[in-house]
């Protein structure tokens, strides 16, 4: 591997114009394809293999056109000062508002609450549902503006008017603020790390090129493949993070080789052969973790995982080819100020084995490995304990800020009609084989309305052929309450008796039931996913490090960090400790997809740090250093760069914590805390402590296994050679340019 990549780096340096032009052509081609591609149609969320999805599919089949994804806005009217919405003036204001709402060009229908019975028992609250001809993504700015103005005009009458529903969602897409924050912080961190504008700018430039290629490629494929917007969002986030990191490690190794007195071309080749090998295997672990999301069986997660994996592959290819080519254009501008000054004076920089922060920290851990290990494990274990109280769900409008009209509409409906009104269950009765479909649906309805926890059941609505009925069930509790989950389980648990009495089958669906089913499916898929991803990564690291214990230690450290980060998420977003500091106004269940999403991304990034840090230790050990010396050497060369890479990741993810959406806050906080814990506790404390305690045993591999495993030479043993002359004349001329 090292020898092959050595040749790749040398070739990219020598043919730098060709390499640069090829990547420019690729960027231009995918850019043109992305900009001219037809706009992708918004695909509805689907979850194969769960009852809620099967019931929804049955509704689509038996009620053609009725389940169209037209946007809706549920407008709530609350009378002032104890008055009733049925009072003459208030009723007149409500009817005027409904008339104005119905005048929108894209509005399909509105419902009069006084005719439909959508007035609370105490008469304080009424609501209407505005249905649109298009989905939420298809609403024009004019339609959204008309809706907002209608609400304002209604408020002028003295009524409290709020609105929820998907028509109120902001469909403008991500603003890019988080990415801008990440790039800005990355630039500062790189400048501090390298002390050179050129060295700091090169990783940013190549990462942005890679992100551009990935983003345009996904945009071009979005229409034919039906990719969601989240696919490109995750790809940009990870492509930017790993793109900077991979270029950072190669540039850092290049400067190190130049400091040994090597010529620019040889330094590039060696950096690509050694650090490039680590980049390849680090990228493979990330790709395994992301592509492994497909085993969960959730189409959206599969798309996100494969899209992000593609972005990582692009980042690896750019690091191995375009970075060496750019180093060929500016061979000396990347160097430290001291090295550039020495070269201008005609001298040759000499490598110094000076003590730095990495070596001081490694020495500290090596002197007391057991206390450091116990303290780190105990700290992560304490953070992970709240994970045992994890409750999964899909937070809705109740999780939004109280500053939003959606949240206020949710609370007004809960107060006027009961907490369960915001999350009714939908029951679909398949009476195709029943002798009397209407009697069958009535039997199912009567049995369900008698279930504890049910407030009411709506009249059944039949399709045109009269063989399928649909009715709503309003629970006594809120959509995210455990009692609502128990109610769904209770109704489904009584299925055999109800179906036997009715002579027909039924299924439970609706947003609330869908969220419950999704949570259960994700929880059941988490362990298989972990086994697949961790198992494949352990095998990969076994090949890289030729050790049994090092890969097992890496996997165990990852599990500690991810459980601790999930525990931190539970503490803040579920239990509410410190929630005010992050602007979280409402606590509740953790988003269903959060744990498996966090595991997938963090595992890949954690293995990045493991490969980059431990590969330098392995390299030093293979080249003759004792185990303790190898640990110190690894930290001398890699600690500063790993810290910089981790800080860049944390900055990118932390940018999302400031988002107004609670779910985005949760994702940003979870990822930032996971990287913080893994990079600074697991990789910087637990890894050297365990290696110090194991000594020679850390690198033990059975002879029979050593013969079977392929040799990839990540440490670059085949590339060891004396330093070459300082530089060829052509390179000196190029450096002056």
Short description:
This protein has 737 residues and is an alpha+beta fold. It has helices spanning 2-14, 16-36, 51-62, 88-101, 113-116, 141-155, 177-194, 197-225, 229-259, 264-291, 299-329, 337-344, 357-367, 369-384, 405-417, 437-449, 482-493, 495-502, 511-545, 549-574, 594-622, 627-654, 662-694, 703-708, 729-736; strands at 72-78, 107-109, 125-132, 160-164, 392-393, 425-430, 454-457, 461-462, 468-475, 505-509, 590-591.
Describe the structure.
Strands 6, 7, 8, 9 and 10 form a 5-stranded antiparallel sheet that branches. With 737 residues, the protein is α+β, with helices and mostly antiparallel strands. α4 runs antiparallel to α6. The two termini are 34 Å apart. It has helices at 2-14, 16-36, 51-62, 88-101, 113-116, 141-155, 177-194, 197-225, 229-259, 264-291, 299-329, 337-344, 357-367, 369-384, 405-417, 437-449, 482-493, 495-502, 511-545, 549-574, 594-622, 627-654, 662-694, 703-708, 729-736, and strands at residues 72-78, 107-109, 125-132, 160-164, 392-393, 425-430, 454-457, 461-462, 468-475, 505-509, 590-591. Residues 721-737 have low confidence and may be disordered. β8 and β9 (468-475) form a beta hairpin. The chain has 25 helices and 11 strands.
Radius of gyration based on Cα positions: 30 Å
Low-confidence stretches: 721-737
Helix content: 55-70%
What is the number of helical segments per DSSP (H or I, 4+ residues)?
A: 25
Shape annotation: elongated
Mean pLDDT: 83
Q: Strand share of the residues? A: 5-15%
């Amino acid at each position: 591997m090292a020898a092959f990549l050595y040749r790749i780096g040398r070739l990219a340096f020598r043919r730098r114009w060709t390499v640069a032009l090829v990547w420019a052509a690729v960027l231009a081609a995918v850019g043109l394809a992305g900009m001219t591609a037809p706009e992708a149609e918004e695909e509805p969320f689907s979850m194969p293999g769960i009852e809620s999805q099967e019931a929804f599919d049955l509704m689509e089949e038996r009620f053609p056109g009725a389940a169209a994804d037209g946007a809706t806005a549920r407008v709530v009217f609350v009378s002032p000062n104890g008055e009733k919405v049925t009072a003459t003036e208030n009723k007149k204001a409500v009817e005027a508002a409904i008339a104005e709402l119905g005048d929108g060009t894209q509005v399909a229908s509105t419902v009069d609450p006084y005719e439909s019975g959508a007035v609370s028992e105490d008469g304080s609250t009424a609501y209407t549902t505005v249905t649109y001809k298009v989905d939420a993504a298809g609403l024009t700015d004019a339609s959204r503006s008309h809706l907002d103005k209608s609400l304002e005009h209604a408020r002028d009458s003295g009524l409290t008017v709020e609105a929820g529903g998907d028509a109120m969602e902001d469909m403008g897409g991500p603003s890019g603020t988080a990415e801008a924050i990440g790039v800005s912080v990355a630039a500062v961190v790189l400048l501090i790390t390298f002390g050179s504008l050129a060295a700091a700018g090169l990783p940013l430039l190549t990462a942005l090129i890679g992100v551009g290629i990935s983003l345009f490629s996904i945009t071009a494929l979005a229409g034919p493949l039906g990719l969601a917007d989240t696919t490109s969002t995750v790809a940009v986030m990870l492509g930017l993070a790993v793109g900077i990191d991979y270029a950072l490690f190669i540039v850092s190794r290049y400067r190190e080789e130049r400091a040994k007195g090597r010529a620019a071309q040889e330094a590039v080749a060696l950096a690509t052969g050694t650090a490039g090998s680590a980049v390849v295997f680090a990228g493979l672990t990330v790709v395994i973790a992301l592509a492994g999301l497909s085993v969960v069986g959730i189409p959206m997660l599969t798309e996100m995982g494969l899209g992000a994996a593609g972005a990582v592959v692009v980042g690896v290819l750019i690091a191995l080819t375009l970075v060496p080519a750019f180093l060929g254009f500016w061979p000396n501008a990347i160097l430290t100020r001291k090295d550039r000054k020495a070269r201008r004076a005609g001298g040759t920089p000499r490598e110094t084995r000076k003590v730095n922060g990495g070596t001081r920290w490694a020495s500290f851990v090596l002197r007391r490995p057991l206390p450091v290990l116990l303290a780190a494990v105990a700290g992560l274990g304490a953070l992970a304990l709240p994970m045992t109280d994890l409750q999964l769900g899909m937070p809705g409008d109740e999780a939004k800020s109280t500053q939003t009209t959606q949240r206020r509409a949710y609370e007004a409906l809960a107060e006027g009609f009961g907490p369960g009104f915001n999350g009714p269950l939908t029951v679909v009765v398949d009476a195709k084989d029943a002798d009397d479909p209407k009697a069958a649906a009535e039997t199912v309805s009567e049995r369900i309305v008698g279930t504890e926890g049910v407030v009411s059941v709506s009249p059944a609505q039949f399709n045109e052929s009269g063989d399928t009925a649909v009715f709503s069930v309003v629970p006594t509790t809120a959509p995210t309450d455990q009692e609502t989950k128990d109610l769904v389980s209770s109704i489904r648990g009584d299925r055999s008796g109800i179906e036997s009495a009715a002579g027909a089958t039924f299924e439970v669906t609706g947003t609330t039931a869908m969220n419950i089913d999704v949570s259960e499916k994700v929880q059941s898929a988490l362990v298989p996913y972990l086994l697949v991803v961790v198992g494949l990564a352990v095998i990969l690291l076994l090949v890289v490090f030729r050790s049994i214990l090092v890969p097992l230690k890496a996997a165990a450290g990852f599990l500690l960090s991810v459980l601790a980060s999930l525990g931190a998420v539970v503490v803040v977003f579920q239990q509410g400790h410190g929630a005010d500091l992050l602007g979280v106004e409402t606590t509740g269940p953790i988003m269903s997809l959060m744990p498996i999403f966090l595991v997938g991304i963090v595992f890949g990034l954690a293995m990045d740090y493991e490969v980059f840090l431990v590969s330098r230790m392995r390299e030093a050990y293979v080249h003759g250093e004792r185990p303790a010396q190898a640990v110190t050497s690894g930290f001398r060369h890699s600690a500063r760069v790993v810290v910089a890479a981790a800080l860049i990741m944390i900055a990118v993810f932390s940018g999302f914590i400031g988002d107004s959406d609670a779910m985005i806050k949760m994702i940003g906080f979870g990822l930032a805390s996971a990287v913080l814990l893994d990079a600074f506790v697991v990789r910087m404390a637990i890894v050297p402590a365990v290696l110090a305690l194991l000594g020679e045993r850390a690198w033990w591999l059975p002879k029979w296994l050593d013969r079977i495993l392929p040799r990839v030479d990540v440490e670059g043993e085949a590339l060891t050679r004396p330093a070459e002359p300082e530089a060829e004349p052509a390179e000196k001329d190029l450096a002056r340019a």
